[in-house]
Amino acid sequence: MSALSYARYGKDNVRLLKVHRNPDGTQDVTEMTVCTLLEGDIAASWTHADNANIVATDTQKQTVYVLAKQHPVNPPELFASILANHFLEQYSHIHVAQVSITVHKWSRMQVDGQAHPHSFLRDGEEKRTVECVARRSKGISIASGIKGLLVLKSTGSQFWGFHRDEYTRLPEVWDRILSTEVEAKWHWREFSGLGEVEKEVAGFDAAWSDAKKITLETFAKENSPSVQNTMYLMSEQILAAAPRVEAVDYSLPNKHYFEIDLSWFNGLQNTGKDAEVFAPQSDPNGLIQCTVTRKGVSPKL
Ligand SMILES: O=c1[nH]c(=O)c2[nH]c(=O)[nH]c2[nH]1
């Protein structure tokens, strides 16, 4: 005998752009990609071909558009919570609604030295992310994040003192290139409901800019002994800056740039302190991850 032990379904990659027209004639835009996933009394669709309780994924997509028209889409934590809460209020047989949002960057253009009222450019691939889960009679869990933030420093990074044995070839280095694509998430203490999320609106934006600033400044300023230590310092500072955040995750690939020995060419010096031309490596790459939690707290998501 078999049994359906877990099921959820929804619409992924729902893309939308919202234009906000300000009273002074300027406009703002927000572009996002949304994923909705529902759980609840839905098993019969899988087990008995009975779709009566299935809120079609197309309906979920239309709901995203309608609610984006009726409500603010910023901050994305609030819009995700509005959507997740809607699915629980509208459908009594849905018990868990998960909404994930990726916000794509559109920065206002500077034209003739002035902020243009309605033109924007993509000046970076980093994304603002939200994972929101609303559970009936329980509350709303939110994790905010940043991903796709590509950074590199040409010095101010070391890696030495690591374990050595017969498998080790890597030399110790006191000066190297360090590059990574930052993925970080910060988990908020659970919200009792939409009302409590609404009260945190300013906190979501503040945490986003603080987390980005902390990440960039720590990366640039620290003479890094390892990716491990650098990400820990970043996490500690985010916890200090955002009192409602309970845990911070980082996932950092170590995007290696290898020295190239050119001594075969008339003794040309290009290693150690003479290294100037490097070979960027696409793979394999290190992958360093951590979760740093406020003392006495275990993360929910
Ligand atoms: O910062 C680093 N951490 C490691 O664990 C590691 N391993 C490695 O080969 N290079 C590096 N760099």
UniProtKB/TrEMBL annotation:
Q: Which UniProt keywords apply?
A: Oxidoreductase, Peroxisome, Purine metabolism
Q: Which InterPro entries match?
A: Uricase, Uricase_CS
- List the pathway annotation: Purine metabolism; urate degradation; (S)-allantoin from urate: step 1/3
Recorded hits in Pfam families, A to Z, give: Uricase
| Gene3D superfamilies per record | Urate Oxidase (3.10.270.10)
Which PROSITE patterns does the UniProt record give? URICASE
Q: Which residues bind O2?
A: 57, 254
Q: Give the protein's function.
A: Catalyzes the oxidation of uric acid to 5-hydroxyisourate, which is further processed to form (S)-allantoin.
Q: Which family does it belong to?
A: Belongs to the uricase family.
Q: Per its UniProt record, what PANTHER family does this chain match?
A: URICASE
Q: What protein name does the entry list? A: Uricase
Which species is this record about?
Salinomyces thailandicus
